[in-house]
C-alpha cells in the first residue's frame, strides 16, 4: 500500500514541480523574516537552556527529574487530550450537521462560529468565569432545577479549564472536519444504507473512516494549540493543575530563570514536532496543511 | 402465483408545488429486466429512488410479493442498487467493498470470502481483490459496484444510469456484461436510462416515462411498431412526422389527407381526446418507399430530394414536401430507387397505411 501511494504521489506531484519558481527570490522577504524572528529566537532559546546558569544539561535534568514539574507536564497532556477528545466528540456532529444542512442555515451557524472566534479571547474567558462561578448562571440554574443542592466548583480547576478550552478550540475542529465531510458524496452513504448498513454502521464503517483525515488534522491542531495554551488555564485553572505555558511564564516573569524557562519551552517544541511527524507518518502529506 | 412479483401502485411524488412523479403504476415479473426510459426530469429516477427507500412517495404504494415496502427503511429492504456516480467505499479494497453487505449482516469470514470470490468471478474481476477503487477505471468500479449490490442475493436490483459516465465502447461492453449477469443470476432488474439504444439492447420490457407518467410499457419492438403516443414514437427510433388532416375516423383508424389532395385510408389512429381534425402522421424512415416516377395505382406524395448520405449499409435520403416539411428515408445500399438519384430531383413517397400511425 505504501508503495502504491508513493507512486501515485509522484505522479500527482510531477507536473506541479514545473510550477515552482526557479529561484527562492520571491520568497526571500518571508524567509528573512522567519529567520530573524523564528529561527534565531528558537536557537537562542535552545542555547540559553543549555548555557544558563552554567553550560550543561542541568536545566533539563531538573525539569524532567522533579516530580512537581513532571506533574505539570502530565497535567498539560491530560488537559490537552481531554480538550481534543471532547472537541472531536462535540465537533463531529456539528460538522456533519453543517455539511448536510441547507446552505442558508449553515451560513448562519458559520457566522455564529466565526463571530465567536473573532471575539476577544480574554473577554470570552472572563465570560466563562462569570458563568461558571459559584453564584454564576450555570450553578443557579442547576440549583433552581433541583439537580444539585450545593453549587459546583466549576472554575479554578480542571473542569473550568476544560470547558473554557473546548469552547475556544471547537471551531478549529469543526472547520477542517466540515471540509472533509462536505466532500463525501451522499450517494456513498445511500449505497451503504442499501447494502444493509444501519445508521450506526454507516457512521462507523463509512463516514468516520472517510472523515478520519479531517479528524486527525483538526485533532492535531487542537492538541498542539492546547499544549501551549496560556490565557484560559491561567484564568480558569487552579494552582493545582498548572499547565506548561503557565510554568514557562512563571520561570521567566516571576523567577527570571531564563534557563529553566527555555528548557521547558524547548521540551514543548520537541513534543509538538514529534506529534506532527507522527501524524505525517499515519495520514501522509496530502491531508496535511495543504488545504 | 396470484400477486405479481413487484407492483408499483399509483405512485405520486410532489416536491412542494412541483410534481416529479404524477401517477405511475407498473407490474414487474420475477426475473424481468425492465427499463425506465425517458428524458431527464421525466420522473424515472425519482420512481427508482422511491423503490430504494431514499424518498417517500406522496401517494401510492409499492408491493414486493404482495407486501408493502414503504414502511421498511432502505437498509432492511434487501434491494441492490448500482448508482450513476461511483459509490464504492474509497477506504476499502475491492474485496472489502463486495463483502461489506455481508459484513454488516454479520456473516462468517468463510462465507464472506466464498461469496466475494464468486462475485468477482461473476463480474470477471478475479485478481482485483486487494485493489482500491481509486486504482481502477470507471468501468471496473461499476462492475465492482454491481458485484457489491448482488453479493447479498437481493430479489431486485436497481440501476440508475450506471453507465452514463463511461465512453461509448466501454458502455456497450458492460451492457453485454450486465445482460449476461442478468441471465446467470436471474435477478429482477429495474434499469434507468435516457439512452434509447441502451434500453433497446438490454431490456425485456421498457417503460417510457414522460412528464411524471408512464406513456407506454412494452417490448422494444412493440414500442417501435405500435407507439401509443407521439412522445413514444419520437423517443424510440427515428421518426418522420407529417402534418395531416383527419377526414374521417372510427376511433381505431382514420382516413387522412396529406397535402392538398392525397387521401390515405385506414391509418391506425391514436387520439388523445378532443375531436381535432389536425393530426401528425408518423412514418418510420425504413418503411417509406421511394418511387422515381409517379405510381399509377396507389397514391403517392411528391417530394424534393435535398441530400443523399451514404452510411455504409444504409443510404439516407433527406427530402422536403411541397409545403416544406422534411421527410427522411432510409434505404439499403444498392437499392434501385437511389441509382443515379441526385439533389433537386422530384421523387414520390409511398407507404403502407397499416404500418403508419396518426396522432391527434
From TrEMBL, chain A:
Compartments reported by the entry: Cell membrane
Topology with respect to the bilayer: Multi-pass membrane protein
All copies of domain ABC transmembrane type-1, residue ranges: 73-279
Pfam families: BPD_transp_1
Stretches that traverse the bilayer: 72-96, 108-129, 158-181, 202-235, 255-278
Keywords assigned by UniProt, alphabetized: Cell membrane, Membrane, Transmembrane, Transmembrane helix, Transport
InterPro entries documented for this protein: MetI-like, MetI-like_sf
PANTHER family with a match to the protein in the record: ABC TRANSPORTER PERMEASE PROTEIN, INNER MEMBRANE ABC TRANSPORTER PERMEASE PROTEIN YDCU-RELATED-RELATED
Family indicated by similarity: Belongs to the binding-protein-dependent transport system permease family. CysTW subfamily.
Name this polypeptide is given: ABC transporter permease
TrEMBL record, chain B:
InterPro entries according to UniProt: AAA+_ATPase, ABC_SmlMolc_Importer, ABC_transporter-like_ATP-bd, ABC_transporter-like_CS, Mo/tungstate-bd_C_term_dom, P-loop_NTPase, Transp-assoc_OB_typ2
SUPFAM superfamilies xref list: MOP-like (SSF50331), P-loop containing nucleoside triphosphate hydrolases (SSF52540)
Keyword Transferase: no
Ligase is among the record's keywords: no
Pfam families referenced in this protein's UniProt entry, alphabetically: ABC_tran (PF00005), TOBE_2 (PF08402)
SMART domains, A to Z: AAA
Superkingdom of origin: Bacteria
Keywords: ATP-binding, Nucleotide-binding, Transport
GO MF term list: ATP binding
Record-annotated ABC transporter domain positions: 6-236
Protein family: Belongs to the ABC transporter superfamily.
Protein name: ABC transporter ATP-binding protein
Organism the protein comes from: Mesorhizobium liriopis
UniProt lineage: Bacteria, Pseudomonadati, Pseudomonadota, Alphaproteobacteria, Hyphomicrobiales
Amino acid at each position: 500500500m505504501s508503495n502504491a501511494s508513493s507512486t501515485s504521489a509522484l505522479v500527482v506531484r510531477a507536473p506541479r514541480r514545473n510550477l515552482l519558481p526557479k529561484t527562492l527570490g520571491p520568497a526571500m522577504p518571508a524567509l528573512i523574516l522567519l529567520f530573524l524572528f523564528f529561527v534565531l529566537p528558537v536557537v537562542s532559546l535552545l542555547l540559553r537552556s543549555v548555557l544558563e546558569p552554567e553550560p550543561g544539561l542541568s536545566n533539563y535534568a531538573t525539569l524532567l527529574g522533579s516530580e512537581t514539574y513532571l506533574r505539570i507536564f502530565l497535567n498539560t497532556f491530560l488537559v490537552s487530550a481531554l480538550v481534543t477528545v471532547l472537541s472531536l466528540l462535540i465537533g463531529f456532529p456539528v460538522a456533519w450537521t453543517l455539511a448536510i444542512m441547507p446552505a442558508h442555515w449553515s451560513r448562519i451557524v458559520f457566522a455564529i462560529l466565526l463571530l465567536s472566534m473573532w471575539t476577544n479571547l480574554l473577554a470570552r474567558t472572563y465570560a466563562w468565569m462569570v458563568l461558571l462561578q459559584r453564584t454564576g448562571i450555570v450553578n443557579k440554574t442547576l440549583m433552581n432545577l433541583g439537580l444539585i443542592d450545593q453549587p459546583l466548583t466549576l472554575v479554578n480547576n480542571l473542569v473550568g479549564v476544560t470547558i473554557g478550552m473546548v469552547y475556544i478550540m471547537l471551531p478549529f475542529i469543526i472547520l477542517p472536519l466540515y471540509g472533509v465531510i462536505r466532500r463525501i458524496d451522499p450517494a456513498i452513504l445511500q449505497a451503504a444504507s442499501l447494502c444493509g448498513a444501519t445508521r450506526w454502521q454507516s457512521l462507523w464503517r463509512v463516514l468516520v473512516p472517510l472523515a478520519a483525515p479531517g479528524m486527525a488534522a483538526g485533532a492535531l491542531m487542537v492538541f498542539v494549540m492546547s499544549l501551549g495554551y496560556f490565557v484560559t488555564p491561567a484564568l480558569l485553572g487552579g494552582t493545582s493543575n498548572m499547565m506548561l505555558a503557565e510554568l514557562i511564564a512563571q520561570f521567566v516573569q516571576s523567577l527570571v530563570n531564563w534557563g529553566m524557562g527555555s528548557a521547558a519551552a524547548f521540551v514543548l517544541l520537541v513534543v509538538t514536532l514529534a506529534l506532527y511527524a507522527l501524524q505525517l507518518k499515519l495520514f501522509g502529506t496530502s491531508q496535511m496543511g495543504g488545504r | 402465483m396470484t400477486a405479481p412479483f413487484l407492483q408499483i401502485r399509483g405512485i405520486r411524488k410532489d416536491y412542494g408545488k412541483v410534481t416529479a412523479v404524477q401517477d405511475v403504476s407498473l407490474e414487474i415479473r420475477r426475473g424481468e429486466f425492465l427499463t425506465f426510459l425517458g428524458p431527464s426530469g421525466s420522473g424515472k429516477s425519482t420512481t427508482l429512488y422511491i423503490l430504494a427507500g431514499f424518498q417517500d412517495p406522496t401517494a401510492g404504494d409499492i408491493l414486493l410479493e404482495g407486501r408493502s415496502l414503504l414502511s421498511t427503511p432502505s437498509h432492511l429492504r434487501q434491494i441492490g442498487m448500482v448508482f450513476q456516480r461511483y459509490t464504492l467505499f474509497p477506504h476499502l479494497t475491492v474485496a472489502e467493498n463486495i463483502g461489506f453487505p455481508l459484513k454488516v449482516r454479520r456473516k462468517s469470514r468463510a462465507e464472506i470470502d466464498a461469496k466475494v470470490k464468486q462475485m468477482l468471478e461473476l463480474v470477471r474481476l478475479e485478481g482485483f481483490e486487494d485493489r482500491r477503487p481509486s486504482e481502477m477505471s470507471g468501468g471496473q468500479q461499476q462492475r465492482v459496484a454491481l458485484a457489491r449490490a448482488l453479493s447479498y442475493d437481493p430479489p431486485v436490483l436497481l440501476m440508475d444510469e450506471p453507465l452514463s459516465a463511461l465512453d461509448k465502447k466501454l458502455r456497450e461492453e458492460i451492457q453485454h456484461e450486465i445482460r449476461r449477469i442478468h441471465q446467470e443470476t436471474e435477478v429482477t432488474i429495474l434499469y434507468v436510462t435516457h439512452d434509447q439504444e441502451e434500453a433497446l439492447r438490454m431490456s425485456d420490457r421498457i417503460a417510457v416515462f414522460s412528464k411524471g407518467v408512464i406513456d407506454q410499457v412494452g417490448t422494444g419492438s412493440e414500442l417501435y411498431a405500435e407507439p401509443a403516443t407521439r412522445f413514444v414514437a419520437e423517443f424510440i427510433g427515428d421518426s418522420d412526422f407529417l402534418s395531416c388532416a383527419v377526414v374521417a375516423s372510427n376511433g381505431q383508424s382514420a382516413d387522412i389527407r396529406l397535402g392538398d389532395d392525397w387521401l390515405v385510408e385506414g391509418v391506425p389512429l391514436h387520439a388523445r381526446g378532443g375531436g381535432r381534425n389536425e393530426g401528425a402522421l408518423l412514418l418510420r424512415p425504413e418503411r417509406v418507399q421511394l418511387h422515381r416516377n409517379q405510381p399509377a395505382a396507389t397514391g403517392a406524395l411528391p417530394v424534393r430530394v435535398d441530400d443523399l448520405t451514404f452510411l455504409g449499409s444504409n443510404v439516407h435520403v433527406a427530402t422536403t414536401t411541397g409545403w416544406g416539411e422534411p421527410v427522411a428515408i432510409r434505404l439499403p445500399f444498392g437499392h434501385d430507387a437511389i441509382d443515379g438519384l441526385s439533389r433537386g430531383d422530384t421523387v414520390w413517397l409511398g407507404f403502407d397505411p397499416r404500418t403508419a400511425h396518426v396522432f391527434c
